Amino acid sequence: MTATIFKKELTEMLRDGRFRWLSTSVLVLLGAAVLMGMAHTRDVQTQHETAQAAARQDWVGQGEKNPHSAVHYGTYAFKPTMALSAIDPGVDPYVGVSAFLEGHRQNQFEFRPAQDATAMQRFGQLTAATVLQLLIPLLVIVMGFSVFAGEREQGTLRQLMSLGISPGRLALGKALGVSGALAIVLVPAAVLGVVALTLATPGAEVAADAPRLAMMVGAYLLYFGVFVALSLAVSAKAPSSRLALVVLLGFWIVNGLVAPRAVTDVARSLYPSPSSFEFTTGIQAALADGLDGQSPTDARMAAYQQEVLAEYGVDSVDELPISFAGLRFQKSEEMGNEVFDYYYGGLNDTFESQNRVRSLSAVVAPLLAVQSLSMGLAGTDVAQHRHFSEAAEEYRRMYVGRMNEDIAQNAGAGRYVAEAGLWASVPEFDYQAPSVGWVLANHRLSILLLFAWLAVALTLAMRAASALRPV
User: Fold this and answer.
1) Where are the domains of the chain?
2) Is 264 left (phi over 0), alpha (psi -120 to 50) or beta?
């Protein structure tokens, strides 16, 4: 009997002109978003790889010079573009794609695509994630708002229940009917996405991203399941299909349009981030006078010089067996690193606190849970941007330390010029993205709340179905 109900619901939906028109529109938009996203991701990744190779060549080809000049010459670190960012670009357009790595300072990331976009472009950006998070739930609502309420208005619900069909079987059959109609839209889009992903990325990267893609698919299926169950619950409870549609559209508006903006404003008010001017000014002041504001750099460097002289048992830097210039440069770096760790660490902690507010707010809107999890699996969330920025900063400190060590060991009384081979001895910047386990651990709250939403929605649907009345 359940299979019969499923076939009947699916047939009616396929015959419905509204479903055909809406599903075709959504499928076209989703397919276009996937294809455009893949093409854009492939182009951006090629640009990043080319730029990274050029930066490496510039570094290696500096020629003979003083290592401290090489420190100021610097190099670039470009953030790799993950294949799944074609589905969900997340925060990547807003946080920058590269950082200039040089001595004495930790630079902010540059080249934010969103800065070059017009207001209309930022508002109307079409991505696969937008379609999946907003338009697919709307399609589910259109398909499901009248499954029970419409039957009641037409008088066919009484006939169905007079046949002795249990409310549970009836609800299951209708849920399968809605899900089957939804699959007609999603399966072709999923196949298109997998094919595009395979063609756009090397085989090794596709294999590495397969677990992330599978989990992303699972997350979105849970999200769609929430809307299927809620649509059935509201349709079973509402006295009319019109009221059911109004209630479900109200939930869709709050979930997709109101909650994300409101929660973002609340998070920013609870954990305000400094302006660019305040941030830069604070760093400059701390570099000059220490984090406590009472430790001038000159005084600390003079004290360090005395410590070095005492350690080697000499009276002047000229008597040291190594070059004090290299030691001084490295000490300056270490003092600066304390400042950078404090300010950049505090800024990143503020962003993570804001994200925790968003994650907790998923109790009122399932979109916030799937949005967070989708960005995480795509490698485009704030946590993974911080992971990359910390790796780039670690590389900066490593190569600057090597240059200072070379000066300390080899510089004499005159002007020191290192051989060109020194630059090649510094390994290339090779960033490794965090594992899937790391991502899931960071988003365990979103996973929990997404499952909680599905459990609540299914409970409401079962209770509403068990209380069905023909009139």
Assistant:
1) 2-466
2) alpha
